[in-house]
Structures are given as C-alpha cells and as structure tokens.
Amino acid sequence: MPPNLKLIPLSNSFNLPYPCQSVMYAEDDMMNKPSIPLRIKRQSQIPFIVAWVFCLIFYFSQYAMRSAPGVMLPELTQAFSLSAVGLSTLIGLYYYTYSLFALVAGASLDYFGAKLVIPAGIAMLAAGSVLFGLGFSLSAEFGRLLQGAGGAFAFTGAVYLASHGFSGKYLATAIGVTQCFGMLGGSAGQFLVAPLIHETMNWQQFWIDAGIVCLIVAVMMFFVTPKAEAVASKEKGSLRDMFSPYKVVLSNPQSYLCGFSAGLLFLPTTIGDMIWGVPFIREAAHLDFSEAVKQVSMVPLGWVVGCPLLGYLTDVIGRRKPVLIGGAVFMLIISLAILYVPQAMLPPYLPGLLLGFGSGAAMIPYTIIKEVNPDHVKGSATGAINFLVFTLSALMAPAYGWLLNTLAVDSHITMESFREAGIVGIVGIIMAIILSCFIKETGSQRYPEMTVKAK
Fold it and tell me: Which of 74, 264, 342, 444 is the most buried (most CB within 10 A)?
C-alpha cells in the first residue's frame, strides 16, 4: 500500500447504522473531505453493470411468461380439458414456487455469488417453458412450478448485480429501471403474445421457442457475469449455512417495516387491478371486455413510468422516505377517486395510469432494506422482502375474494360490493403510510459527508 494511503472504516468514521467495508482515501485529505476511492474500484463495477443488463432480459422474459397464459385460456382449456377452476390452479402454480424460491435465490446469491446462480435460474425457467409447451397435464404442472422457481432468481439477481455495479447514489434508479423492464415484459406477455399465437404459431410452439431463447440467455449470462468471491466463509461446510444471512435480515425490525409497507402498497395492483380490475371496470362503467382490458392495462404502464422516475427522484434529493410516503398518499387519493367518484366524471384511461405511477413507490423499500442491513446480506435482503410481499398478496387474494362474495347481492358482485370491499385496500395504503414513518432514512442526504461506499 502506498505510504500516503490509509484504510478508514466508514462505519467508525461516520457512525453509520449498518456495517460497511473500509475505503481507501488519501491521508493528505483526511482532515478535509475524503477523496474518491481508487479508480480500480470503478473499473471493477463495469462487469457487474454489463451482467445486470443481461439480467434485465431474464427479468423481462420471466414476467412475459408469468402473464402469457392469460391470453391463451381457450387453447389451454381445450388442450388440458380443465374447468375454469382447474385452469386457474394450473396457472397459479407459478406463485407457490416463486414465493418459496425468493428466499432460496437471495441466500444462494450471498453464498455462491451470481456467476452460477443466475444462469441456473434462467435454465430452470427455460426447462419449465419447454415442459409447459409439451402439452401434457403433468409436464405442464411441473413446468409451471419450474417457471416460478427459476423466475424468482430474476429480480433478486438483477438487484444483487446492480448493488455491486452501481454506487448508492444511483442504486434506487437502477432498481426502478429493473422493475420497469419487468412490467414491460408483463405487457409484452399480453399484447405481443396474443397476436403471435393466433397468427404466427400455436401456443405450444411459443413456449418451446421461448425456452430455447432463455437457454441461450443463460449461456450468455454465464460468460458475462464476473466471478465474485462468495461472502459466506469457506469454513462453513453445510448448505444449511447458506440461509444464515436471513438470521441477520429477519432479526432486523426494519426489514419487516420495509416488507410490509411494500406489500401493502402492492395490494391495490396485484389484487385490485390484476385480479378484479376488469370486472370492476365492467361493472362501474358498463364497458365491454376488450375496453375494460385496455383501461386496466394502464396500471402496469404507469408502473413502467413510475418505478424508475420515483427511484431516480429519491437519488436526486438524497431522501427515500419523502418519496415513499408521497407516492403512497398519491395512491390513496387516486384509489379513493376510482372507488367512489362516478366513472362518468373520470377520464377513461388516466386513473389507472396514475394509480400505477404512484404505486411505483412500492419499489423504494426494496432499496431501503438493502441499506438498513449489512453489505454481506444484499441478496438475502432482496429475497426476504420479495417473500414478504408475495406472501402477503397470496394470503390477501383469497380473503378479498371471499369478502366480495359475502357482499354480493344474489350471487352478483355489484358496484356497491366493490366499494365496500375496497375499504380493505384503502386501509392497507394508510397502514403502509404509517409503517413508512418508522422506517429509517437511508438516503445520501442522511449522511452528507459519506462518499461512495465500497462494495
């Protein structure tokens, strides 16, 4: 080490609430503002950014596969001879393994690193796609489970790579862009796949071709992802130790505040829009099916804009909580308008677009949870919040459906039923705002004297 350089632990220098690694600064500047870390640090980030870009393709693909079955229901019904309930169960198998493997993905990234783990996730998604396209009931069920298991590595892997490739100043923006690609994939799974399987190829060929494309992406991902030293110590010989980072994440109360606040902000979109949005619009505005779908699709389009823009805003102002709480308040106002203002008084597409834009704030806790936990549990922190968010959605979906059926009039869900049941979503947003007030501020302005943190 050159004589004019000295290692200064950031956690000791600035009394941060989480441990950081040491950063090398010039000793001549120690009495003044610390200088920028060594240039080699920046150069080492570039391969992770390149790998992150490839992982965005993975995330786009898994979101497209998640939503694609919705545009081929008649074909699937005929192929598997399933009732509506059976078909819904088949498609829903995705979320069982997705929730479970959200934990596995985060732990394995921290234990093994990204070079093998993320390509393995893409390979599972590819295998699941091919199995689903074979057209047999058993293979389709197993394939859908594999798609969920592999898909769980997409977002967690992208965030893991982003956290190693970008400084804290731009991390929220990178996560917002990541979610933007996912929502674009969800839209592509509907608007692009529908004409594709009806004009160019049959539904089985689509799934087989998609699996082949994913397999190619897996190979490319393996070669572009840099080797990173697994954080877990080599003395640990048991794979059970792979999940030890969750002891750190789940023993931190801030992790639960992040998970539940994000999960509550997701509910109006995952349940209110994606499940009950079309029947609500048809009942409220007396529209046909195709027009209702167009209006409901404005919500994910709002996500495409809101996620990166709100993430960028938190980086610009150096504060996380004002944008998080502000986005939640905006969601509350739009949700109240959608539920209780007569539809004739609202523009046809704007409310859904604004709701999706505001709900982009639900991604901000994904950044915060990484900043309130130690550096060596980055992947596990993302896996934990993903698990909390999707578990909450999985539990609330049937509960909300039961409530709607209870409020139905002569087995018919009326507009009044939606308005009464909508109180659940309103209360959820209010609870998210309250929980957000107790989350620690982790933006750069919280510690203005801190420079770029070493990864």
Answer: 264
Of the candidates 118, 147, 138, the residue with the CA atom closest to the CA atom of residue 382: 118
Could you tell me if residue 236 is inside a domain? no
How many whole angstroms separate alpha carbon 454 and alpha carbon 181? Answer: 27
Domain housing 142? 49-228
Rg (CA), the chain: 23
- Specify the number of domains making up the chain: 3
Distance CA 411, CA 145 (A): 33
Same domain, 217 and 311: no
The rounded Cα 182 to chain-centroid distance in angstroms is 8
Q: CA-CA distance, 45 to 33, in Å (whole number)?
A: 23
Does residue 308 lie in a domain region? yes
Distance (Å, whole) CA 103 – CA 246? 9
Pair of tokens at residue 103: 């934990």
Indicate if 120 and 184 belong to the same structural domain.
Answer: yes
Residue with tokens 């909508």: 422
Q: Digits of tens for pLDDT over the chain (455 positions)?
A: 444 444 444 433 333 333 343 333 333 343 444 444 444 455 567 888 899 999 999 999 998 888 777 667 677 878 888 764 566 667 777 877 888 888 888 778 878 888 999 999 999 999 999 999 998 889 999 999 999 899 999 988 998 898 888 877 777 778 778 877 888 887 777 677 777 877 788 889 999 999 999 999 999 999 999 876 544 444 445 666 777 888 889 899 999 999 999 999 988 887 777 667 767 777 777 877 667 767 777 887 888 888 888 988 998 898 999 999 999 999 999 999 998 888 778 888 899 899 989 988 998 998 899 889 988 787 678 778 888 887 787 777 777 777 877 887 777 778 888 888 889 999 999 999 999 999 999 877 765 543 344 33
Whether 282 and 308 share a structural domain: yes
Of 70, 290, 74, which is closest to residue 192 (Cα–Cα)? 70
Say how far apart CA 164 and CA 168 lie, in whole Å.
10
Burial code (b: 16+ CB inside 10 Å, e: under 16) for 159-180 equals bbbbbbbbbbebbbbbbbbbbb
Residue type, 238: S
Measured between its terminal Cα atoms, the distance across the chain in Å is 19
The CATH number given to whatever domain includes residue 279 is 1.20.1250.20
270 within a domain of the structure (yes/no): yes
* Residue 409 Cα distances to 415, 416, 417, 423, angstroms: 10, 9, 8, 18
Q: Assess contact for 141 and 257: CB atoms under 8 A.
A: no
Place of tokens 């308040």: 329
**Cβ-count burial 125-142 (b if 16+ within 10 Å, e if not):** bbbbbbbbbebeeeebbb
